[in-house]
Design brief:
Layout lengths: L25 E3 L9 E6 L5 H17 L2 E2 L3 E2 L4 H13 L4 E4 L7 H10 L4 E4 L10 E5 L1 H13 L5 E7 L5 H17 L3 E7 L4 H14 L3 E6 L2 H14 L13 E6 L2 H8 L5 E4 L2 H16 L2 E3 L2 E2 L5 E6 L2 E6 L3 E2 L15
Parallel strand pairs: 2-3, 2-4, 2-5, 5-6, 6-7, 7-16, 8-9, 8-10, 10-11, 11-12
Antiparallel strand pairs: 1-13, 12-17, 14-15, 15-16
Helix pairs in contact: 1-9, 2-3, 4-5, 6-7
């Protein structure tokens, strides 16, 4: 889940599907090549528990995958700094990059730098609008919006529902927002969707929800597109407005989020959150490095099923995405040990 003025994004979701490292969707390229050399990895921000978890998983998964990864660098929600970080890694002679784009358009400049130096890149969490990447490792963000829509729509049959959006300069923010609205219009026409553009920023979520609740005290549900940055300000705003009631209370405002962090799981157990769509911080780190290692060895890839429970799809000409699964977590399965949020 991410942010920044007119261009930034992220965020974030899922289950850790860690399978074999042999994949039928991968095919060696004619060129071959070695898989050795140091790898650089970027972070979009570290103010979200989700990205803190991802950051911790990177060195762990590097060891598992046999990749020599340098210390991660944090772009601190600044797309321009991310491009600078990529340039710094390239000047250090890295042989591969795992990047977490803040902005789907801005990252293209960094991808061009890497391409010019013949350095393969894997994008994690956010897909670029164009440019050369060996693979995008990402859950289906449209599914996030649809699953959140159903989780709310099953409990709220009519009335007003708010979605606290991610940054719309990011494909993640756009996918979640558009899918949520489309699902509501098709399946739950009695629900009116109100938007809060929050750019993955907690302060914007807080002030936006305060204003929205003042103007619409009859709101019945809230969809938080990034629980890591939106859950706490949402809970605080509801308490300030005396609208915080436990799940099951007739006055409860249905709350659904994306991420799957331990804080969300705790809120579900406490009856403060109805559901979240789990985004796999561990699998993002694992398969980002997994595909990069293969790309550094000269392998190329094609659409089709993988051996780790996902499917590679071509999301735009020349850009492949390994779409990892993203389960919905509720009171019924919150204690499932397979969820990465239960294994930190």
């Amino acid at each position: 889940m991410i942010q920044v003025a007119a261009t930034a994004a992220v965020c974030g979701l899922v289950l850790a599907a860690c399978g074999s490292t042999k994949d039928d969707a991968a095919a060696p390229s004619a060129g071959g090549g070695g898989a050795g050399g140091k790898v650089g990895a970027t972070l979009p921000l570290l103010t979200s528990p989700f990205w803190q978890a991802y950051n911790n998983y990177v060195p762990q998964m590097a060891k598992t995958e046999g990749v020599d990864v340098l210390p991660t660098v944090n772009a601190d929600s600044d797309p321009a700094k991310l491009i600078t970080d990529i340039g710094t890694f390239l000047n250090q002679g890295v042989k591969g990059l795992v990047v977490t784009p803040l902005d789907s358009a801005a990252i293209v400049a960094g991808l061009k730098q890497a391409e010019n130096k013949g350095v393969p890149v894997v994008a994690v969490d956010v897909a670029p609008e164009s440019g050369k990447v060996a693979m995008v490792v990402r859950a289906d963000n449209k599914a996030y919006g649809t699953k959140a829509c159903d989780a709310i729509g099953e409990k709220v049959k009519s009335g007003k529902v708010v979605q606290i959006q991610g940054d719309l300069a990011s494909v993640n923010g756009r996918d979640r927002s558009e899918a949520f609205k489309a699902c509501m219009a098709q399946k739950y026409p009695g629900i009116q969707v109100l938007d809060i553009p929050a750019e993955w920023k907690a302060d914007k979520a807080s002030s936006g929800l305060d204003s929205m609740l003042t103007a619409n005290p009859d709101i019945k549900g809230v969809y938080m597109q990034a629980g890591g940055v939106y859950l706490a300000p949402t809970q605080q705003a509801l308490k300030r407005k005396n609208l915080s009631f436990p799940v099951g209370d007739p006055k409860h405002i249905v709350l659904v989020s994306n991420d799957g962090i331990p804080q969300e799981l705790a809120a579900i157990r406490a009856g403060e959150l109805d559901a979240t769509v789990s985004q796999p911080a561990d699998a993002y780190a694992k398969y980002g490095l997994y595909w990069l290692k293969k790309a550094m060895a000269g392998e190329t890839f094609k659409p089709g099923p993988t051996d780790h429970g996902s499917t590679i799809v071509e999301i735009s000409p020349g850009i492949l995405e390994d779409q990892l699964p993203a389960p919905v977590i509720t009171k019924a399965n919150v204690d499932d040990k397979a969820l990465w949020g239960n294994n930190l």
